[in-house]
Amino acid sequence: MNSGRKEIITQALSAGRTTLTEHESKKVLAEYGIAVTRETLVMDPGEAEKAAADIGYPVVVKVCSDQASHKSEGGLVKVGIRDATELSAVAAELGLRAAELGGGLLIQEMVAGKRELVMGLMRDPLFGPCVMFGLGGIFTEALKDVAFRPAPLSKEDALEMIGETKAAALLGPVRGMEPADMDMLADNLMQLGQLAIDNPFIHEVDINPLIVRDGKPIAVDGLIVLSEEEAVADIVRAKAPLDPLYAPRSVAIIGASAKTGKAGNDVIKNILANDYEGEIYPVNPKGGQIEGLKVYSSIADLPEGIDLAIIILPAKVTPGVIRECGAQGIKTAVLAAGGFAEYDAGGAALQEETKKALEDTGIRALGPNTSGHITTPANFTSSFFPLGKIPKGRISYITQTGNFATHTMRYVMSVEHYGISRVTGMGNKLDVDEADALEWYADDPETEAIFVYLEDFKRPRKFLEIAREVTRTKPIVFLKGGATEEGAQAAVAHTAAMASDDRIIDGALKQAGIVRIHKYTHLVKAAKAMACMPLPKGNRISFMAPSGAMLVTMTDYCRKFTGLQIAEIEDATRQRLQDMSPPFVTMRNPVDIWPAVTIDGLEKAYTRGSEAVFEDPNVDAVVMILMLMDEVELDSLDFVVNLAKRYPDKPLLVTFSGQKSHMEAAKEFLEPRGVPTFALIEDAFAVLDVLCKCGKAKARA
Ligand code: ADP
Ligand code: MG
To answer: How far apart are CA 475 and CA 481, in angstroms?
Structure first.
């Protein structure tokens, strides 16, 4: 039987089989350029000897049947068979087992090599086909040392995912073994991704193990699981553009209220507070005036073709109201009401009705269950949480929480000093989802950096596809909310069993150049830094501290971050630092600044120290830990602002030690002047790690 992969797959499926045998699986893998063992399938144990003689001893004998997916568990693999005598005994024994299982015997070359790796493929319900790499053999499931990437993979993706595993440490020239051929490994991973794309009936693939012999990876086992159902790609439906949502020229507030404290009133106050220049049409059956605006008593009375309707009415009337809006030619809507699918079964039914109404009218909608959006270039917000005038800037958010249009925005506005461009509170994502918002931000000249908080994805592959391009020009920082379960899926193959949501998300985000964070507050802190500082060109940092303990502990802390490295400064720089310090201290990076302060005072010492490190070509970014208190003489912090201005290509982040009143005053002085500060010393470093990673993602090929 000399059939190609297509015949193998169709024959198996028409025979009602969903697993391919090892031998069949390897034929498919070989078509994708993956090196497999030399082997012969014999149906009669009497033919084993000839096959073994052709291959050459030692050989391996395995029962080959689609009924035996995990062979060694059933004693169906015998390795290291040295001669014909041994073989005939093994062939007789396993021959019986093979007959029971309706299969044959696989006579295979014995691959000598100590390093066993695993590669695999699974189809994630969200991300589609994902390729896995890791430590193989008996340790695979125990150590779960694996990484994932959604297909297709670039060479960089493949090399990066290999580098993420601990198994990577075994691939160099360890213990006299030849280094593994990284090119070949990477190609194999890319090819597995391609295999998934070409073969919609292949559901899972396991190559466990792949043994490294003389540096070359060879698949000694293979398992392909088929599915009767063809995998389908994302369904894409052409939809109306979102410009009327983000740049509305006219807005109707349906459910407008004259009562202070009501959502239908606060939303109007917000719009007015932001100096919105478009037309505002409050709608309320009572008519009259609200906040000096004429109230329309029904949707039918509104002029035709309004850009946006903010619907602040109970869930149950929403579908009907959308249809009325549709009749009036309204283009987009924000659906504020909760009580839909997130609430109960009745709400879920209502959500379906709402969805139908949106499809029938073609209205693009945000929500339901959203506190709205902010779009400062249009001087506009649909938030019904009292916000007042929102400061303008270039930072945009996509969030699966209303917080960024409510209390977190209040926090940003009252504690931090940076401006906002767009905020999209996704709500239940009935229509507008994370991919839509990202697609719009991608072309938005008013958005320079994008911060995302999501608990789930609606169109993950589309989101990542867009992100992959966006991150080459605009950083995307991502916080994933919600517990991530280990290997939640029931699976035949090991790959799927190891595919925890979190590993896949991790790989998928990296592949798209998205920088993942793990702290909610960093959605704000990193945004603040990015709002005023450039992305570093590299990850080599310098910092100066007024204490030895801080130098030591922050150096330790930096080791936690893959994005950060303490810069090796040049001799000339070291000399400059030495020249400003007393001879009893040996200066290096990080910079022990206090001895110099005792000689020259704070301003002069910090200035000279900063100049030295900023001017060093090996330094990409600087953190300054300022000691501020009554006893420290200082006229002004202008020198810090000036340093930031003088070295505009390298970020400067400031944090403090000392006395509350001075530190708070310093924040209030520095931040409006474009220097980000951090109350927690560690935060300055954690945020710089995010900046470095974003810079790296932007610069990638
Ligand atoms: P299973 O179906 O149980 O995964 P494998 O074919 O992977 O069976 O064989 C079990 C183990 O035997 C492998 O993990 C590997 O260590 C060893 N092995 C199998 N085939 C070979 C071979 N051709 N050369 C060297 N070792 C092999
Ligand atoms: Mg195996």
So the answer is: 20
Ligand 1 pocket test, candidate residues 138, 214, 220, 492, most atoms within 8 A of CB: 220
192 CB within 6 A, ligand 1:
no
For residue 502, pLDDT over 90 is answered with no
Tokens of residue 460, six digits: 């993950």
- Strand stretches in 167-307, DSSP E: 202-213, 216-219, 223-226, 250-254, 279-283, 289-290, 293-294
Query: Which one-letter DSSP state was computed for residue 649?
Result: T
The contacts of residue 125 (CB under 8 Å, 6+ apart) are none
**582 or 700, higher pLDDT:** 582
Q: In angstroms, how far is the first alpha carbon of the chain from the final one? A: 44
CA atoms of 144 and 97, how far apart (whole Å): 32
Residues in the chain: 701
Cα 104 to Cα 14, 212, 223, distances in angstroms:
20, 27, 16
> Is residue 141 within 6 Å of ligand 1 at its C-beta?
no
Angle at 610 between CA 608 and CA 612, to 5 degrees: 70
Q: Is 108 in the pocket of ligand 1 (CB under 6 A)?
A: yes
Distance CA(422)–CA(277), nearest Å, equals: 17
Q: Residue with the nearest Cα to atom 22 of ligand 1?
A: 110
Q: What confidence tens digit (pLDDT) does each residue in 390-432 have? A: 999 999 999 998 999 999 999 999 999 999 999 999 999 999 9
Identify which of 108, 221, 492, 495 to mutate to test ligand 1's pocket (most ligand atoms within 8 A of the CB). Answer: 221
pLDDT digits (tens, 9 = 90+) for 162-213: 999 999 999 988 788 889 999 999 999 999 999 999 999 999 999 999 999 9
Q: What is the pLDDT of residue 233?
A: 63
Give the model confidence (pLDDT) of 332-354 as tens digits: 999 999 999 888 999 999 999 99
Q: Cis omega (within 30 of 0) on the bond before 546?
A: no
- For residue 131, the cross-strand partners are 121, 149
Say how far apart CA 358 and CA 373 lie, in whole Å: 19
Rg over alpha carbons for the chain, rounded to the nearest Å, is: 31
Look at ligand 1, atom 7, and give the residue with the nearest C-alpha.
221
Q: From the CB of 72, is ligand 1 less than 6 Å away?
A: yes
Pairing type for strands 449-454 and 289-290 reads unpaired
| H or E stretch covering 118 | strand 115-124
Residues 545, 554 contacting (CB under 8 angstroms)? yes
pLDDT digits (tens, 9 = 90+) for 443-466: 999 999 999 999 889 999 999 999
Choose one of 19, 71, 72 to mutate for the ligand 1 pocket test, by most ligand atoms within 8 angstroms of C-beta.
72
Confidence of residue 563 (pLDDT cuts 50, 70, 90): confident
The pLDDT-based confidence of 488 (bands split at 50, 70, 90) is very low
pTM, whole model, 2 decimals? Answer: 0.86
**Rounded to the nearest whole angstrom, what is the distance from the C-alpha of residue 403 to the centroid of ligand 1?**
53
